Amino acid sequence: MCGRFTLNADKQALTQQFGLDFGEVLPRYNLAPTERIHFVFSNASEARQAGFARWGLVPHWSKMGKADKPLFNARSETVLEKPTFKSAFVRAAA
Questions:
Q1: Domain that holds residue 23
Q2: Residue 46 main-chain phi, psi, to 5 deg
Q3: Of 14, 25, 61, 87, which sits with the fewest C-beta atoms within 10 Å of its C-beta?
Q4: Same domain, yes or no, for 12 and 39?
Q5: Would you say residue 66 has pLDDT above 60?
Q6: At a CB cut-off of 8 Å and minimum separation 6, what does 13 contact?
Q7: pTM to 2 decimal places
Q8: Residue 16 has pLDDT above 80, yes or no
Q9: Over 80: is that where the pLDDT of 26 sits?
Q10: Are 92 and 75 found together in one domain?
Q11: What is the pLDDT of residue 65?
């Protein structure tokens, strides 16, 4: 299945790289879409923060219910043509 990854960095390496406290970090070798993962996030008005989030994309126009799953797999060849990924891609690239 596409979209799986591992997290095997230790807490010390993450703290050194990002300068943030991540709490307990255990290696995970088969992270799947929608699982809660360690995350680093920020916006224009705040400093970086560490936290947890479910990974995947819920388009701003989605009427998604709790039973549905977020999207996670886009083709690079068509990312700017598909409304599902276009606005998120353009915003992230800016």
A1: 1-55
A2: -130, 155
A3: 61
A4: yes
A5: no
A6: none
A7: 0.58
A8: yes
A9: yes
A10: yes
A11: 59
